[in-house]
Amino acid sequence: MSTDTGSHAGDRTVDLDIDRVIGPETFRLLALCCVLVMTASYVSVLREVTRVVGGTHSLFALVAVMLATATILSWAIRPRTATVGAIVACIFGFAYYLEISGVGAGVMLSASDAILSDTLSLIAGLPLIRMVEAGVWTLAYAPAPVFLSWYLAMRGRYSLSVVPGGLALGFLVLTGDAGTTITLVGTLAGIGAVGFGELERRDGSVAQADLIAVLFAIIIVLSLSVTFVPGDSGPTSSVSGSSPGTLEGAIDSAADRSAIGGSVELSPEVRFTVQSEQESYWRTGVYDRFTGDEWIRTGEPQNYDGAIDSPPGEYDRVRQLVTAETDLGVMPMAPQPLALEGDLSQHAEVTRHGQVHPTTPILEGDSYAVESAVVDPEPNELRTAGTDYPDPLIENFDYLQTPEGTSNEFEERTAEITADADNPYDTAVAIESHLRSSKGYSLDVDRPDGNVAEEFLFEMDEGYCVYFATTMVQMLRAEDVPARYVTGYTGGQQVDDDEYVVRGTDAHAWVEVYFPDHGWVSFEPTPGDSRDSVHADHVEQAREDGIDNVDTEDSEDEPLPEADREDENEDGSESDGQSDGSDDGTDSERDDDPNENDDSESNGNDSQRESENGSTDTVGEQHAGEGSEDDGWRSYLALPTVSRETATIGLIALVGLVASVHRTGATSRVRREIGLYWQRSGDDPDRDVERAYRRLERVLAREYRPRERSESPRQYLDALASDPERTIDPRVKTVTNRYERAIYGGGVTRADADDAIEIVDALARERLPVIGRRQTERDPEP
């Protein structure tokens, strides 16, 4: 007994030593660190936005100023005054950004409508990265929660300090900008601030850390078990049968984004037909904000109300009738659309860039009529267009945006390429010619890390339309020329004087440049190479393989345009439409514009792959039926993959479960329950008998009542047996007698101890009343 007491005293000494090391001051430091981590979580989301649109240095400066101010004022002003100060900080945030950006605080009032509109759109679920005034709004958003959170934390009001930070992070979760990892980190930090703050306030010890772990797990699991983040309500801009692995599936994979991927395939299946008096590129998407690895369409679309803004200068009106040959999530049409006719006009919306999108999927067989304004000025007119761009074009759109951190080398190289250009048109032609002549065309590329435009200009030798168009837009913007990235399809196969069949092989991306008094003019930086011949080979091979939907009734008997050109190649003439780079900005270069040049997304590299494989795979059929039996077994035996986020959540839940079990004493109860039915013999017989008797008391307490502290063991048994209808099981008295000898007498032998253990084991396992039968034999140990 004395040894056991000493052991417990030693444990308490260790606990006291730990408490002296991890005391209130330590818990305060941990709580403050948690508040800083929570602040960093939502600031990191804002930093991702400023990385794209600019203002990261201003963001960090604002956060630092707010933290310093809150520290200084934490004990100088009251919380109510601090709340008012946070609002003032928000206002100063707007003014600070506008001043350092060179715009001036006076613009803040004129920009208030746009900022308010953006904020309301955010509440409705618009991602922050798609906001028109993303930079201004982001820098105005940060100061208030940063200041108020840190002020309250410095005053020891930890529970209140997580409220402004939690609201700031929660709002970014609702907009879809804060991912699961950031949300987890911020939430854990908030809970940690509250938990450690409570430990500081209550002079808690490290032994209460299990309570913090339980709170962490419960709140995290509950917060992530319900999906409440609104998604994009717009339709998915995809084509039936396409996938992210195809070019068209990549460039129009979402309603507001255009991806930049790696290797892609082409599908020869017919997507739509067009009846038009003039051939054109058929545009499906316009994007203005470049993140470095994808394109974003800013702003919210408006329902089509019967009219779309027309270009500022002269243009020709062209009417088209588009018929879907498969389900579509886009509305191809010649730029720039002016009006939409047909039943689908009731289910269409117009982006702020003037492109029409369907609000519901277009089904196979649906058709719609479009009237477009075709802008086709002479090169000399574009050279003299000047740079007097409309203010809304520059102030409210991202047509001059480049990601923050764009290298000086990129800008210097662009300046070298355009050194001889003295106007935006010649600048565009110089960049277009350089890309067409210096880069090869291939669909088989590895997607680079970092800024795609820089990587393509400096590191890559070949790519496809997405890379050429992206790089040209960014180079133009580096020269302060408004430009944007557009997606859609090339003209397709002409099957009649005014009818075109457009396939998946015609998916494309190109560039539009703005010229005052003219509007948006298309440029084609992607080299033609052997596109026509490869396009024909691709479709012809699909026809031979019997692939469905490769032709319409009008196109199946029509020779493909490349057939004659292949004959010419046999005579030694060239079919390559790529510029040789020798042009110097003359009118001939504009002859390569998208309305006249039928570049598609294929070339000799694809032809080579086809000849090696012997056939052309299509989406949904690629590698069908291929693979060995071993591949099948590997697929069958493959273990399911678990994402890092899922594993993190699972780990948190497991830690919380273990902590809750420890906190509630469940482990001790389980151990005691198991110990009720089984006892291991020790080295001390007296100690073993004592433990056996304690188990016996628990058996009796379960059947009748616990022993009172004032009762001796013998008095306890006499009280239980006071009912004349009951007598005491002799085995109970045997264990009690041996307990008395072990505690108060001369001790017991090893055999007596083992016998007492076996008796209690039997009584517990029988789970029968140990009292209730009259004893007819004499107690073996009176």
Short description:
By secondary structure, the chain is of the alpha+beta class. 49% of the residues lie in helices and 11% in strands.
What order do the strands of the largest sheet run in, or round the barrel if closed? 8-11-7-2-16-15
Largest sheet: 6 strands, antiparallel
Count of distinct structural domains: 3
The number of helical elements comes to: 28
Q: What's the CATH topology label of the largest domain?
A: C8orf32 fold
Q: Which CATH class of the largest domain? A: Alpha Beta
**Which band does the percent of strand residues land in?**
5-15%
Unreliable sequence segments = 1-19, 101-105, 225-236, 563-593, 595-639, 771-782
Termini separation comes to 27 Å
Tally of strands: 18
What does this structure look like?
It comes from Natronorubrum halalkaliphilum. Keywords: Membrane, Transmembrane, Transmembrane helix. InterPro entries: Bact_TGase-like (IPR052901), Papain-like_cys_pep_sf (IPR038765), TgpA-like_C (IPR025403), TgpA_N (IPR021878), Transglutaminase-like (IPR002931). With about 775 residues, this protein is α+β, with helices and mostly antiparallel strands. The chain has 3 domains: about 210 residues, no CATH class; about 260 residues, Roll (C8orf32 fold); about 100 residues, no CATH class. The protein is built from 28 helices and 18 strands. The strands form 5 sheets. The chain has a 6-stranded antiparallel sheet, with no helix packed on it. The chain has a 4-stranded antiparallel sheet with strand order 3-14-17-18. Helix 18 runs parallel beside helix 21, helix 25 packs across helix 27 and helix 27 packs across helix 28. The protein starts with a helix and ends in a 16-residue tail after the last helix.
